[in-house]
Amino acid sequence: MASLDIVIYGAFGQTWHVHGDQAGAEGVYLRQDQVDGLIETPVRQVWDANARQVGGTLRGMWRDVRDIGLGFIIQPKGSQTVGQVEDAFRQSFVYRKDQWDWDAVLPRIEITDPVNSTTRSIDVQLYEQADFNPGTDFLVTDAALPILPLRAGQPLWYEDDIIEPWSTTGTSGSGTIDISNPTPEPMYAKFVLTRATAWVLPDLSWSGPPYARVPGTDKRTGRDDSSRTILMPEITTAHGGATVDLDYINGTALMIRSASDENLLGQMPVPGQYFIHEFPSFLQPTTIPVSVSGAPAGGAMVQLVQPRRFERPIGGVQLP
Question: Do 151 and 127 contact (CB within 8 A), yes or no?
Fold first, then answer.
């Protein structure tokens, strides 16, 4: 019988196989009936109703942070006592990223579904102290049973980003980039640009049923931006390149920034024009147009970074 493989990667490079074929390889097992918050993503909604309305109306919906509670069985492993294994495991989890290490990461939970051949991750951190009160000398019993309260500030599971490039060897050119989004979540992509006098990028509204989306009038706003484009500011050697990050909609990034994180929004050639559309969920493979002029000798390149976000660690891909 197939089972999920669950691996925890610690903040300082540790690896712990806690469930699946290699469970306990480092002396730590996920406890049965001690798993909470791992599957469904938390949702918060706002509803209201007028004086004569039957029922109510949904007015808004948000994804809240994901709180996860995980219980473990920790045992001796090889020459390491249960105390040594427990201490190393506990040090894999932190309350926040290391404040002095520019390359610091949070602990990561990875779940592999061998049936559907998917591997998804979520980054977590402690939000309060661990629940570990042995009640006896766990060095004598050779077993520790901690419960860790974890929080994922970004509550969606993710797969590796898909990166699609387009380039030209001339000083100007136009073409298309492949794009798709087979997930149930809107996609906040990134355009990564090399230097050029003028890039023109798409900012399209979409409409239509799943896996038949086309540029069209936005159902939510009534705007028809099916051919909308954005003229980018000149990207110079001093800028070192630029990134357009649609995740600014969620307040997590500058919308347009140089390679050194300089905010370029104030340099937009058309004042007040900026990106307003994300890419829809369940977007079939299609293409979007790009063009460039004033590229240096050797040409220019744009990369479209397409994140994959899911409500759950398994499933969630709607087939056409």
Answer: yes
Q: Please, what is the Cα angle at 33 between 30 and 40, to 5 degrees?
A: 90
DSSP for 23-56, please give it: TTTTSEEEEEEEEESSSSPPEEEEEE--TT-SS-
pTM of the model: 0.91
List the domain boundaries for the chain.
Answer: 5-155, 159-310
Q: CATH topology of 5-155 equal to that of 159-310?
A: no
Residue 112: the pLDDT is 97
CATH number of 159-310: 2.60.120
Task: Give me the mean pLDDT over the 56-67 stretch.
Answer: 94
Mention the CATH class of domain 5-155.
mainly beta
Q: Is the pLDDT of residue 41 over 70?
A: yes
